Amino acid sequence: MNATNYSSNSMKAACIVLSDDEYATVDYIFSVLSILVNLVTCPIVTLLNALFITTMRKKRRLQTMHNILLASMAGTDLAVGIGCQPVFVAQEIFLVAGGSLSVYCKFFIIQRTTTSCLCLLSLIHLALIAVERFVAIKCSLRYDSIVTKFRLTVAVACCWLIMIFDWATWLFYKLLVSPLVFIIGSFLLMLFCHVSVYFTCRRHVIQIKSEQVSRDATTKFLEERKAWNTTTIIISGVIISFLPGIISLSAFRNSPFPALQRISYSLQPFCFSCFMLNSLLNPIIYCWRSKVIRQAMLQLLRKQNI
Q1: Is the overall model pTM greater than 0.90, yes or no?
Q2: What total of structural domains would you count in the chain?
Q3: Most buried pick, 30, 202, 270, 285, via CB within 10 A?
Q4: pLDDT attached to residue 12
Q5: pLDDT digit string, tens, across residues 70-98
């Protein structure tokens, strides 16, 4: 297994780079802002993702292969809202209130590793969705025989098992697969699917304009392309969410200048908040892009209020 051995001392060094006396105003500001943002968004993240999953479960007409994958990804986002955000808020409040950095670090390591695994799991789900859309557009005639519920279930289960195994090996053996392995692998797969689908869509559009395609085939293609565009927007949201953390780690953390390294550690609460806020962005995109899903969620919400 391509793993990075994080010893107890090295992980603490990554956490407690500052002494209690060095916990400056800039750290306090970023911690307080992160607390406020997560306090406001945590119940919204939980509500929207739980509502989306419930809607998919109760509305059979919405249970397409694409929507099932979206519901599975919403499950990871729900876990972030239920577990990661409250723990993150609690540990940051503990630090701002004057708690010991050494005690804070124990919660820090577990919470950040769990959050990273869930965010990476969401990214892997997104790669699966990109592959599903690739098959839907590239092999539309064989889609039903290629993408089945059984294969979809196995693929999703494998994603969860990989992340659970990765988290467990860190918990018991302090071994953690580098997140870059999952990030680079997922983005390369999504890039391949996007480039291939782009040229396929371009060819279909030319055929439609020349009236060489039937009306039913045209309608189906436009629906599949809309779903693909939704996937593209979700991927863009993930990139925006991951960008602050990637820049902080690559540009600042490894900088030879102590001032930039200091900024990187000060920005940690903000960067992890951006990772978790992607769980809020995803259900908003689902509702915005699909009127049917939006109406079904609103209908379910009204029934719950009655």
Answers
A1: no
A2: 1
A3: 30
A4: 39
A5: 888 889 899 988 988 888 888 888 877 77
- Name the nearest CA neighbour of 276 among 104, 95, 42: 42
CATH number at residue 293: 1.20.1070.10
- For 228, the domain range is 3-131+142-305
Q: Is residue 265 part of a domain?
A: yes
Question: 3-state secondary structure string, the chain?
Answer: CCEEECCHHHHHHHHCCCCHHHCCHHHHHHHHHHHHHHHHHHHHHHHHHHHHHHHHHHCHHHCCHHHHHHHHHHHHHHHHHHHHHHHHHHHHHHHHCCCCHHHHHHHHHHHHHHHHHHHHHHHHHHHHHHHHHHHHHHCHHHHHHHCCHHHHHHHHHHHHHHHHHHHHHHHHHCEEECHHHHHHHHHHHHHHHHHHHHHHHHHHHHHHHCCCCCHHHHHHHHHHHHHHHHHHHHHHHHHHHHHHHHHHHHHHHCCCCHHHHHHHHHCHHHHHHHHHHHHHHHHHHHHHHCHHHHHHHHHHHHHHHC
In a domain, 199, yes or no: yes
Cα–Cα distance measured from residue 269 to residue 37, given in angstroms and rounded to the nearest whole number = 11
Q: Is residue 57 part of a domain?
A: yes
Residues (pLDDT < 70) of the chain are 1-27, 171-178, 206-218, 221, 248-264, 304-306
pLDDT of residue 49: 92
